[in-house]
């Protein structure tokens, strides 16, 4: 009889018992292959070469320069005049009232308009360090997700490639047994073995498509280096310690808010709210008059008899009177206050969304931890034992070929599922860490969320 024989050592060699331990980690002290792309390298490159961050710095510099300009008085106005000039001769000394004038006037904006305009620009500029912090955290989470998507496809391909040799041996054994008409090998066994090889080829094609897609998306952030093979070890990320607050069941809403209160997007909205509050103060200044000081020096030429004439100096003050305020100043103040409330509403909505996303991610992580433990402690060992037992039974003419193949496929699927759980867990941790991104030192979160 011709029978395909595999001992238990071959089966166990194909099992990856550490795939759910948090990642398929490289050995301590191992050197990274320079031809591969590590997650840390991808994140560093993406953050350092993000043009948005450079644009944000330019915008902040522009706002700071505008703040300096906004606090400066308007330029004085110089005027040159010829007064009481006779039109018949245009002679400067013919008429006693003819004079040449040099005047200067200076406008003074209403109330504290200059100081408030400067403060508003500074408040808008203070948003950008917070927005850049959020952008860096968001880029880190995005690159991590894409890198892990590509890693999941790459490692799934590796798992299938390792098992494909076994299925090829099964197919060869089935064909050999069928061609010699010995043993219990049937035509459907040979067909089943070839069918599984075809299915594996299709799965490899789909996984390669997924890997290519993820790497192409990753190239948006790191360029052509995204197409390099990824390091084989799945990186282990630690969860921010504040996650423990929301990981406890039945935690109250204030505790959830406290966990995300220092998120840079919320603090940036606080700066926006401050700027709109300053708009209210600016609108209130329009109830005050705008002043202008004027001074003019008038030069008179000698009269027709050659006698000198006195020159004149003129001083003046002008201002407007905001008397009709119902349809202008009142409406502008009301509009500015409405914008403040609109921004406060936007903050409430953002805080609720962040809290909901954090709670959702926390629940997902807890369930993924449960599944990881289930696969590590029970499912993977049981699948390996079942596969080994089915193959041994078939080798001993006590089992069905189809059952042996099904057991091997089930074990392979379990290992791929275990890898998917490990990758999804790391992606969830990356999302939680983004939601728990803290503010830089010197920025404090408000005590009340709403």
Automatic annotation (TrEMBL):
Organism: Kineobactrum sediminis
Family per record: Belongs to the outer membrane factor (OMF) (TC 1.B.17) family.
Protein name as catalogued: Transporter
Stretches assigned to coiled coil: 190-217
One Pfam family from the record: OEP
An annotated Gene Ontology molecular function: efflux transmembrane transporter activity
Keyword terms of this UniProt record: Coiled coil, Signal
Top-level taxon of origin: Bacteria
Annotated signal sequence range: 1-27
InterPro entries linked: MdtP/NodT-like (IPR010131), OMP_efflux (IPR003423)
């Amino acid at each position: 009889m011709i029978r395909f024989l595999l001992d238990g050592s071959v089966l166990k060699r194909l099992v990856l018992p550490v795939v759910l331990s948090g990642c398929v980690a490289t050995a301590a002290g191992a050197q990274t292959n320079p031809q591969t792309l590590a997650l840390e390298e991808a994140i560093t490159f993406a953050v350092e070469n993000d043009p948005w961050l450079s644009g944000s710095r330019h915008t902040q510099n522009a706002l700071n320069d505008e703040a300096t300009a906004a606090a400066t008085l308007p330029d004085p106005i110089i005027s040159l005049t010829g007064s009481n000039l006779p039109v018949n001769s245009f002679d400067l000394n013919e008429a006693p009232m003819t004079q040449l004038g040099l005047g200067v006037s200076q406008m003074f904006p209403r109330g504290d308009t200059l100081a408030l305009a400067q403060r508003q620009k500074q408040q808008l500029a203070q948003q950008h360090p917070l927005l850049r912090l959020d952008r860096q955290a968001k880029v880190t989470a995005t690159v991590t997700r894409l890198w892990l998507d590509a890693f999941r496809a790459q490692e799934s391909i590796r798992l299938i490639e390792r098992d494909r040799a076994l299925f090829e041996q099964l197919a060869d054994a089935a064909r050999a047994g069928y061609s010699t008409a010995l043993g219990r090998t049937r035509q459907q066994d040979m067909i089943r073995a070839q069918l599984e090889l075809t299915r594996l080829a299709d799965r490899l094609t789909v996984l390669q498509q997924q890997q290519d897609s993820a790497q192409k998306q990753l190239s948006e952030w790191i360029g052509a280096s995204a197409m390099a093979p990824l390091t084989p070890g799945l990186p282990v990320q630690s969860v921010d310690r504040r996650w423990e607050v929301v990981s406890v069941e039945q935690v109250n809403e204030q505790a959830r808010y406290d966990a995300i209160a220092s998120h840079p997007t919320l603090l940036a909205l606080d700066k926006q709210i401050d700027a709109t509050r300053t708009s209210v103060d600016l609108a209130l200044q329009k109830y005050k008059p705008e002043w202008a000081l004027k001074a003019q020096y008038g030069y008179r030429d000698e009269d027709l008899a050659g006698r000198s004439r006195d020159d004149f100096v003129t001083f003046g003050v002008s201002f407007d009177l905001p008397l009709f305020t119902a349809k202008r100043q009142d409406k502008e103040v009301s509009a500015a206050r409405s914008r403040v409330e609109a921004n406060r509403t936007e903050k409430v909505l953002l805080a609720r969304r962040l809290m909901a996303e954090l709670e959702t991610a926390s629940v997902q992580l807890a369930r993924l931890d449960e599944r990881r433990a289930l696969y590590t402690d029970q499912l993977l060992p049981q699948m390996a034992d079942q596969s080994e037992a089915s193959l041994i039974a078939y080798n001993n003419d006590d089992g069905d070929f189809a059952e042996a193949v099904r057991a091997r496929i089930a074990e392979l699927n379990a290992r791929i599922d275990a890898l998917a759980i490990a990758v999804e867990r790391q992606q969830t941790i990356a999302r939680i860490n983004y939601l728990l991104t803290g503010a830089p030192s010197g920025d404090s979160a408000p005590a009340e969320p709403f």
